[in-house]
Amino acid sequence: VQCGAAVERILPQKRGGLLLQSPVGQFTCQNLLLTLGGVASPQLSHSQGFEGLVRPLGHTVSPLFPALVQVKTANQLPKALKGTKLPAEVRLYQQEQEIAAAAGELLFTEYGISGPPVFQISRWASANAARKQPLPQQVALDFLPEFSLPQVEQLLRQRQQTLGGS
Prior knowledge:
Layout: E1 9-12, E2 18-22, E3 25-29, H1 47-54, E4 71-72, H2 77-80, E5 85-94, E6 97-108, E7 112-114, H3 116-130, E8 138-142, H4 149-163
Antiparallel strand pairs: 1-2, 2-3, 4-7, 5-6, 5-8, 6-7
């Protein structure tokens, strides 16, 4: 392990392995793991690493996009619930077809929704954005996933009778 040695060039060796050139010396290895950052944190990313180090070796990369992000909504309701956390099933729809679903603790924010289930489904929205395809049009939140629709309706009727009101 060599810290503080910025790799400037990677050269394949005739007998296998790689030669790494650095300002502090040269190093050889049989296998190499590169962590070049990504688009979620561009300030930490080293895009030159791919262009300068990896592409010359013949590697390619698929389009990059942030995979774990919050979901911003056009509806202002989440802003009124900002800071509220509760368990929910979150479903993402594209043209009335469910494309992703996850369950866990949902967090309402000033701009929309967040939390582990939102991060799990956000990959699909980010992938569409990266491919310049339409973003999913609807997010459905189910706060009582263990109940069927008739059971929820019955529960609400009972609450209405107990608490009064129309």
